[in-house]
Amino acid sequence: MRRGSSGLNVLLGVNKPSGMSSHDAVNAVRRALGERRVGHAGTLDPAAEGVLVVGVGQATRLMGLLSVEGKSYVAGIRFGCETATDDAEGDVTVTADVPDKLRDPVRAQALLDTFVGEQEQVPPAFSAISVGGKRSYARARAGEDVVLEARRVSIMAAQLLCVDATADGGIEWQCAFTVSKGTYVRAVARDLGRRSGSAAHLARLCRSASGTVTLAQCTSLERIAELGAAGVEQVALDPVRALGLPVRIVVS
Question: What is the per-residue pLDDT across 25-54, written as a single tens digit (0 to 9) for each?
Fold first, then answer.
């Protein structure tokens, strides 16, 4: 279908698969609905999966409001090495022993607790932050030594779900985080490794909620394509609920 103006004005929760950028997900919605006015709230890394809120038509005007919401994630944090990208996609830059204390769930949770609250966080060099008019990741890929300024972020909750043994004898923590806009969970993984006396990187990431929109409310790109412009309203989000606005019933 040729993309133009379909007349649709809907808000969608997309369950973005890993291996696809947020921009690619938006393009997939454009193709499925034949609508050029499509945008998203809050970028999700290509390697990550989960909640991506997408606006179609007039709903794109809500993206700025939805982007300021806090977000929740389930993350796998692997100890033993740090990478250039702070996730599993990058080359290993640092290796370190994994202290036995990191295998103890009680001590692991105690370490996570030290990250709760407002703090200064240095974003990953491989990020979309603009540096001198050029994306940081583009500079890093070109071999430049990129050091970004710390940003004020907030981690509202950090919970250990379990400690898993890896096939190579290492360990991986499964954690749940609720964070403010602009917080990089990759950077949290990196800093956890450093603070623990070891090294760590983000092995996997799923965004479980973006503001009030949860994974349970999301639809796959395949389902959106199947429904098309004629039926996609069946899976649309209620914008009032998504924005967390109060509802008042007026009886005349």
Answer: 999 999 999 999 999 998 888 999 999 999
Are 173 and 160 in contact by the 8 Å Cβ rule? The answer is yes
Residue 61 structure tokens? 């005007």
**Within 10 A of 197 (CB to CB), how many other CB atoms are there?**
12
Best CA proximity match to 186, nearest among 139, 129, 224 = 129
Q: What is the DSSP string of 161-187?
A: EEEEE-TTS-EEEEEEEEE-TT--HHH
The pTM (predicted TM-score) of the whole model is 0.90
How far apart are alpha carbons 177 and 218 in whole angstroms?
A: 19
Read off the tokens for 194: 């450093």
pLDDT tens figures, 114-125: 999 999 999 888
87: which DSSP letter? Answer: B
pLDDT of residue 146: 78
Residues taking part in catalysis: 45
Partnered with residue 153 across adjacent β-strands are 119
Nearest CA among 123, 145, 136 for reference residue 190: 123
